[in-house]
Amino acid sequence: MAKITFENLAHSYLPNPKGEEDYALKEMNHEWTDGEAYALLGSSGCGKTTLLNIISGLLQPSQGQIFFNGDDVTHAPTAERNIAQVFQFPVVYDTMTVRDNLAFPLRNRGADAAYIAQRVQTVAKMIGMEDGLNRKARGLTADAKQKISLGRGMVREDVNALLFDEPLTVIDPHLKWELRTQLKSLHHEFGHTMIYVTHDQTEALTFADKVVVMYDGRVVQIGTPEELFERPEHTFVGYFIGSPGMNLLDASLEGAMAKITAGTVDLGVGYGSASGKVQIGVRPEFVKVASGGDGLPASIERVEDVGRHKIVRLDLGGDSISAIVSEEQAVPSSDVRVTFDPAKINVYADDWRVAPLEEQKGEAA
Fold first, then answer.
1. DSSP secondary structure letters along 197-261
2. Rounded to an integer, what distance in angstroms lies between the CA atom of residue 48 and that of residue 109?
3. Where among 171, 205, 235 does a domain terminate?
4. What is the CATH number of the domain that holds 99?
5. pLDDT digit string (tens) for 325-349?
6. Number of domains the chain is built from
7. Does 61 sit behind a cis peptide bond, omega within 30 degrees of 0 on the bond before it?
8. How far apart (Å, rounded) are the C-alpha atoms in residues 66 and 10?
9. 6 CB contacts (<8 Å, ≥6 apart)?
10. pTM recorded for the entire structure
């Protein structure tokens, strides 16, 4: 297991990058705790796999350093980093049995035969392939082959880190939840440092202790699922996490009030001046829709019943917003009014969260 530290780390695929826009991975300085499970989450092309390949040693960074437990491994080959990596598409030895595929990493390191047998049996049970250990890998389904790849990555107990690059892409949907659960159980049992690349927020939020959200080659937030939901540090996090994502409305601030197109919104706390593009963000879960009473006037565009709740799409002074209401709640048909929970509103300037004055004072103290 390893604590992983990044110092001034950045990478460009161009031979002579001129500016920040030429970097696939923007400069970053982070320390990832030994024994935690991290998910790298973001849309395609945001830099997730680039960062993973730098950690594994498959890619040399253009600048900066990477440390495992304080040791500089920036230029160390993959074989010397003591890691296990599972790729997006299954990599197995077709001529070997399932048993031999799982045992290969241990035999390659001269492990004791009894220990190998015990570990293979344990991992085979974990991936649900106990009954197929003597089958040749050739002819197995893509699902089964990827389970072998996962098992081979997990069979060693002495690795610095386990790296997973979208490993469930080829897995049937009904098996994904089961395998995510098994990976999380493995982490709790052995305490490996795990890094899991995905563009699927459900995978990230159910697997990881900390989610690393990436956007346009930059890490925009590292946090627990709760922190990402309650306090997105960047508008992309608010948009990308949640279904539907956060509502974002252009605004101007006056103390504890925000002026938007439809009227004035109480923020509950005071803010200083914010320059640039100012917006307020509120998740659909914290938008209340009622008939009459206080609130901003709105009109309903459509209602989507998704079974466990209803998603109400509204026009609020020309802005499109979403609200989530319970199955039991009646959706008003006239005099529609919308209110926001002040405690759940976030303020953004040029896409980055602005802390309220109280929070700024607390951080300064």
1. EES-HHHHHHH-SEEEEEETTEEEEEE-HHHHHH--SBHHHHHHSSSS--EEEE-EEETTEEEET
2. 30
3. 235
4. 3.40.50.300
5. 999 999 998 999 999 999 999 999 9
6. 2
7. no
8. 10
9. 28, 29, 30, 31, 64, 65, 66
10. 0.86
